[in-house]
Specification:
This protein has 2 domains: about 280 residues, 3-Layer(aba) Sandwich (Rossmann fold), CATH 3.40.50; about 200 residues, Orthogonal Bundle (N-(1-d-carboxylethyl)-l-norvaline Dehydrogenase, domain 2). About 45% of the residues lie in helices and about 10% in strands. The chain contains 21 helices and 11 strands. Strands 5-2-1-6-7 form a 5-stranded parallel sheet, with helices on both faces. It binds D-mannonic acid (CS2).
């Protein structure tokens, strides 16, 4: 038996499920990047809205790169199970907010058609940092990226989010259809502004007048999104199938904690996501910075250290005093220059994070978080570093975090068959393998301007901190085996 509309009433009584009439739900949101995170976060918030009786906000979930999610969920009418695990408790919820699935290159014209439809009021995004085609350090559009070049050459058949959004808005403008709101839900600083800058830079290449129209009339609210959601494993699938008594091809396992802080700026209306626990605020930048620097900054640091010490999951890494000691020092450096949102004590936030990272029920792989470091380091770690430098403060813990990434890059470069999952892997591996002398490694890797800009490589104080950090890490017995750097 498979999870689908028809079998909903066969689910065990303990499993939450849609009680509203799914056939009456009107799709008004097109979501690009329908991965695990979206399904554990925005889709569940939207589910709460539908459950309240407001059926105007169904989601069309589109995968841009692959049809994997569509292949799994379309046969089950878009339904999937969310397993929520926290502090020994577990709840299973079947979510019905995604009413249509599209995926892969073959469906891109349909994705575009949905985005052009007057009924689409919001286009939301979880496409990860690299999906915006911006240089991590400068924030400039990567005009030379092959996918961007292709979208500029054939604007009628776009395959990047920028090509899709600009083409859909062009159609709407030409046909007198109000523009949808573009809602970024990615871990980028001021993600709405970042999305807007990327869309405008692309639009200017297409049509200057269209770009001005977008600039003046399309809203790009910022939002801070948070819920730790590891990639689904086969063991998770087997467990859920067992619990449901029926097959779910792609369930999601997540934590109990969930947070969504959104700027209330939607030109075609929006669901009342507060029903799912979201908060509307004008202080998104403060929320986003706190989350990026405290949670994601620590996550990345822990991921590289975990990879160096053979710790496969976040929870396992949190059992190693070497790692927790570094994280504590890192958080102290972050908090010293952080502007937290009004009424929030960032020390409480950090205490809560420690508990979340120790959740033994989540198998959050350090290898997953270690991916795409080039896209993550600037906003997660380097932003704090620069603020501390400007204030004349030393940053040994931040230097240790960067040193952990460097050790990880060099280790990967020297491990036969190892793959560095990163859009800048070619640059990083090339620089990481020139020499294994510690000072040369610092010069070569810090010299990648796309990640580090041009300021850090000339900062002698920081380079000295990095050298010290590289050596200290390599001297740790747990790291020594992984270190390929000559000291
Ligand atoms: C993680 C995030 O993979 C990563 O880089 O740091 O996905 C993190 O789990 C989420 O941002 C939590 O909200």
């Amino acid at each position: 038996m498979q999870l689908c509309n028809q079998n909903l009433n066969q689910l065990p009584a303990t499993v939450q499920r849609p009680r509203y009439d799914r056939s009456q739900v009107v799709p008004a949101i097109v979501h690009l990047g329908v991965g695990a995170f979206h399904r554990a976060h925005q889709a569940v918030m939207t589910e709460a809205v539908l459950a309240s009786g407001d059926l105007a906000w169904g989601i069309v979930g589109a995968g841009l790169m692959t049809s994997g999610t569509k292949d799994a969920l379309a046969p089950q009418d878009g339904l999937y199970t969310l397993v929520i695990r926290s502090e020994g408790a577990e709840q299973l919820q079947v979510v019905g907010a995604i009413t249509e699935l599209l995926g892969g290159a073959a469906d891109l014209s349909q994705v575009l058609a949905r985005m052009c439809a007057p009924s689409t009021r919001i286009v939301s995004l979880t496409v990860t940092e690299k999906g915006y085609y911006l240089d991590p350090a400068s924030g400039k559009l990567q005009l030379q990226a092959p996918a961007i070049q292709a979208d500029l050459a054939t604007p009628g058949a776009p395959r990047t989010i920028l090509g899709l959004i600009v083409q859909a808005l062009k159609h709407r403008k030409a046909n007198g259809i109000a523009p949808f709101t573009v809602l970024s839900c990615d871990n980028l600083p001021s993600n709405g502004k970042t999305a807007k800058a990327a869309v405008l830079a692309f639009a200017r290449e297409v049509d200057a007048e269209l770009a001005s129209w977008i600039e003046a009339g399309v809203s790009f609210p910022c939002s801070m999104v948070d819920r730790i959601t590891p990639a689904t494993t086969d063991a998770d699938r087997a467990y859920v199938n067992d619990q449901l008594g029926m097959r779910d091809a792609w369930p999601i396992v997540t934590e109990g904690f969930v947070q969504w802080v959104i700027e209330d700026n939607f030109t075609m209306g929006r669901p009342d996501w507060t029903l799912g626990g979201a908060v509307f605020s004008n202080e998104i930048e403060a929320w986003e910075n706190m989350k990026l620097r405290c949670l994601n900054g620590a996550h990345s640091t822990l991921a590289y250290l975990g990879q160096l010490t053979g710790r496969e999951t976040v929870n396992e890494a949190m059992q190693l005093p070497l790692i927790t000691g570094i994280l504590d020092a890192l958080w102290a450096e972050v908090l010293q220059v952080l502007h937290a949102p009004a009424g929030v004590d960032p020390r409480d936030y950090v205490e809560q994070l420690k508990k979340r990272f120790c959740n033994p029920a989540l198998k959050h792989r350090t290898a997953q978080i270690a991916m795409d470091g080039s896209q993550k380091l600037p906003q997660r770690l380097l932003a704090t570093l620069r603020e501390r430098m400007a204030a004349g403060l030393p940053s040994p813990a931040l230097a240790t975090a960067i040193a952990a990434w460097m050790h990880f890059a060099v280790k990967t470069a020297h491990t036969p068959g190892a793959v560095l999952n990163d859009p800048l892997s070619a640059d990083i591996l090339a620089q990481a393998s020139v020499s294994n002398d510690s000072t040369a490694i610092i010069d070569n890797l810090l010299g990648i301007d796309k990640i580090f800009g041009s300021d850090l490589k000339t900062h002698d104080g920081f380079k000295a901190e990095l050298l010290d950090a590289l050596r200290r890490l390599a001297a740790q017995p747990q790291v020594a085996a992984a270190s390929q750097i000559a000291l």
